[in-house]
Amino acid sequence: MAGADSDDSLYPIAVLIDELRNEDVQLRLNSIKKLSTIALALGVERTRTELLPFLTDTIYDEDEVLLALAEQLGNFTMLVGGSQADDAANNQSGKENHYLIVFFFCLIGNVLTHVSSLLRHFRTLCSDDTPMVRRAAASKLGEFAKVLELEYVKSDIISLFTALASDEQDSVRLLAVEAGVSIATLLPQEDLETLVMPTLRQAAEDKSWRVRYMVADKFSDLQKAVGPEITKNDLVPAFQNLLKDCEAEVRAAAANKVKEFCENLPEDSRETIIMTHILPCVKCPEVRLNIISNLDCVNEVIGIRQLSQSLLPAIVELAEDAKWRVRLAIIEYMPLLAGQLGVEFFDEKLNSLCMAWLVDHVYAIREAATCNLMKLVEKFGAEWAQNTIVPKVLGMANDPNYLHRMTTLFCINALSEVCGQDITTKHMLPVVFKMSNDQVANVRFNVAKSLQKIGPVLDSNCLQTEVKPVLEKLASDQDMDVKYFAQEAISVLSLA
Q1: Quick one: which of 96, 119, 261, 345 has the fewest CB in 10 Å?
Q2: What is the pLDDT of residue 94?
Q3: Around Cβ 279, how many Cβ atoms within 10 Å?
Q4: What is the mean pLDDT of residues 173-189?
Q5: Angle between the N-to-C axes of helices 11-20 and 25-32, in degrees from 0 to 180, rounded to the nearest 10
């Protein structure tokens, strides 16, 4: 190592060259891990002029070596001058002495004269026999394109994108979708339709749901990249198909983009597209629920009257869906619907649904429906509750099914606080007293729990003269649970 003795700064790259040429793969892997340290020792200029040219001219067959190299070079930008290299390029008015922040599929700075070499190596990686290498290349294609001149994007990158988007591995094709969106942002409007859209249309109809999912997930970005005309002509039909996709994961991904998609539509055709092309696709629960959850935003676009008529069939179907979790989801959106649609529309079209949920065969639905009533009263007021909700709730106290009678008590518990003392005392309390004689012990001990719950709403005179006698009677009930809850209510309400 005579050279190393005379000039220590030459030693790192000399050793690196020897190690990278060694047949021992592990030794080469270990040396690659030292790249950042060696580049730091060499400095920016020598890293550019000595280290990068050496790496650029060297290609390896082992994919594990390539991937290790990729990991090191991914954070190499500052070691070759970072943004300063780009600034120097701009200052030289296009002279061929600026550096590309790209190397293979990890994008490293290099001199513009190396572009052809880099593209050649990148092309080799894109067609590598190992899917893992092609995936790595596909994942960096969009970033690679961003640091190239437009002529290289059109002449070289587009062909690589098309090839990767047609790869036999769906894991490669889905990564190509993301690259395609990035590439679309770089191209002039007149080139988009011929160079990118055919491949992206193909991806939207790919046989693999994972690829279609990626298209749906990136749809808003794609919409912004291609502009209004291509959106109207190409993306609207594609979005319709994604909303109706046979795979639930794809539909859900598309549903999550409904709000952004509608907001980004051209103003002159936005309402028409939503009413004619988007809402008719609202057949799957995921899509319907997403639109309903963003109702205020959609309402701003097309107006509540048209929206309510278009969504009503969907709301009704969701409310009666066979899957109880779908029914639960629509219940949770009911206060939002009520606020947007107004009390008149709600009473006419949706009130009956809210009452039907109270007698659903799934307890979670009945519980959510009870909470929903309380939120509706908070929105529409106690007078509305007295005229519309309370009579129907109290009517359930005579239902043959004891579970429905218990739901009456649960509703009274929830409504008493928002309805206030007057309505609770005059209308709801007498029904609770009557139910204290129910033949089912579960109903009777829930009466005791209800009296404890609504006690703070009542005045002291009512508690002493009306509530206390009923609780004392229940405290002597033959059922142990009834006794326990009655005694607890007496203690909590200080009626002893």
Answers
A1: 96
A2: 31
A3: 21
A4: 93
A5: 150
CB contact at 8 A, 496 and 484: no
Of 491, 441, 442, the C-alpha closest to 471 is 491
Q: How far is CA 243 from CA 204, 315, 323, 327, in A?
A: 11, 17, 20, 20
Q: How far apart are CA 259 and CA 255, in angstroms?
A: 8
pLDDT tens-place string over residues 360-378:
999 999 999 999 999 999 9
Calpha distance 16→32 (Å, rounded): 8
**pLDDT at position 340, please?**
77
Written as six digits, the tokens of 222 are 């794609």
3-state DSSP assignment of residue 101: strand
Question: Which residues are within 8 A (CB) of 108 and not within 5 positions of it... i.e. 6 or more apart?
Answer: 52, 73, 76, 77, 80, 100, 101, 102
Which amino acid appears at position 209 of this protein?
A: W
Residue from 264, 277, 276 nearest 238 by CA? 277
Among 15-29, 156-170, 482-496, which is the least confidently predicted range?
15-29
| 161 touches 175 (CB < 8 A) | no
Q: What is the dotted CATH code of the domain comprising 393-496?
A: 1.25.10.10
Burial class (CB within 10 angstroms; exposed 0-12, middle 13-18, buried 19+) of 37: exposed
What does the domain layout of the chain look like in residue ranges?
1-126, 393-496
Q: In angstroms, rounded to a whole number, what is the distance separating the alpha carbons of residues 433 and 337? A: 35
Cβ contacts of 44 within 8 Å, gap of 6 or more: 79, 80, 81
Phi and psi of 116, rounded to 5°? -60, -40
Percent of the chain with pLDDT over 70: 77
Q: What is the pLDDT, as a whole number, of residue 104?
A: 45
Beta-carbon contacts of 132 under 8 Å, excluding residues fewer than 6 positions away, are 63, 67
107's tokens: 């994008």
Q: With pLDDT > 90 as the criterion, what percentage of the chain qualifies? A: 44
- Tell me the pLDDT tens digit for each residue of 43-53: 877 777 777 76
Residues 339-357 have pLDDT tens digits of: 877 888 888 888 888 999 9
Closest CA to 442 of 416, 407, 476: 407
Output Rg (C-alpha) for the chain, integer angstroms: 35
Q: How far apart are CA 112 and CA 91, in angstroms?
A: 15
